[in-house]
Amino acid sequence: MDLTQGAEKHKYDRAKKMMLWFGIISMIMTFGGLTSAYVVSKTRPDWLTEFELPSAFFWSTLVIVVSSLTFILAKKYILSGNRRNASAMLIGTLVLAVLFVVLQFNGFSEIIANGYYFTGSESSITTSFIYVLVLVHMAHLVVGIITLLVVIYNHFKQRYKKGQMLGIELGATFWHFLDLMWIYLFVFLYFFK
User: Fold this and answer.
1) Which parts pass through the membrane (predicted)?
2) What would the pLDDT profile of 109-137 be if each residue is shown by its tens digit?
């Protein structure tokens, strides 16, 4: 590869990374706005102060943290040329992502079983906010799972190796951001009742 091609590839890679970071910043602003509205709404007289987060949300937090670790290990294994272990870690990340979604829906079921509803005449502003925050995160998680599937597909097509890691780096950055965003939301909802 000559210097011109190398410079063009570097610019192309940098542009893709910048696009991802612009997207991440816009998501941070979205969640910042939603959590700010939550804080302001806490002063309402109809705010539920005795509301407890379901245990499924605790477990889903643990699962999402472990999924970040498996993604990190997958990258390490790809860089070291260990495709078998990299495949196992990527598939493990996908399984953990699906488990996270299942636990989130179990959490919603727990909330409803405790008599709290998200919409309709029996809902409260508190549960509606939780519903919106978690569903917006879940929408981003769907994009994260699609990204993970693309990374897995490209891995099995042997498109990643030392010096050609842009796709997996972008996917991992987005995945770790989603994990951190859930941890932020969980801690926020746990402490700001």
Assistant:
1) 20-41, 56-74, 86-108, 128-153, 174-192
2) 998 898 888 788 888 888 888 888 888 88
SS3 157: coil
Q: Look up residue 173 and give its amino acid.
A: T
**DSSP single-letter state for residue 114:** T
Helix spans in 42-165 (H):
55-79, 83-113, 125-156
The C-alpha atoms of residue 18 and residue 21 are separated, in whole angstroms, by: 5
Number of Cβ atoms within 10 Å of the Cβ of 74: 27
**Considering its fold, how many domains does the chain have in total?**
1
Residue carrying the six token digits 């509301």: 51
Measured between alpha carbons, how far is residue 70 from residues 19, 67, 88, 145, 170 in Å?
25, 5, 9, 14, 16
Q: Which domain holds residue 131?
A: 3-191
Q: Could you read off the pLDDT of 48-104 as tens digits, one per residue? A: 877 788 999 999 999 999 999 999 999 999 999 999 999 999 999 999 999 999 999
Q: In this structure, are residues 99 and 56 in contact, taking their beta carbons and an 8 Å threshold?
A: no
Question: Which region holds residue 158: left if phi is over 0, alpha if psi is between -120 and 50, else beta?
Answer: left
- What is the rounded CA–CA span in Å between residue 51 and residue 116? 9
Domain harbouring 58, CATH code? 1.20.120.80
What is the Cα–Cα distance from 119 to 41, expressed in whole angstroms? Answer: 17
Report yes or no: 152 and 143 within 8 Å, Cβ to Cβ.
Answer: no
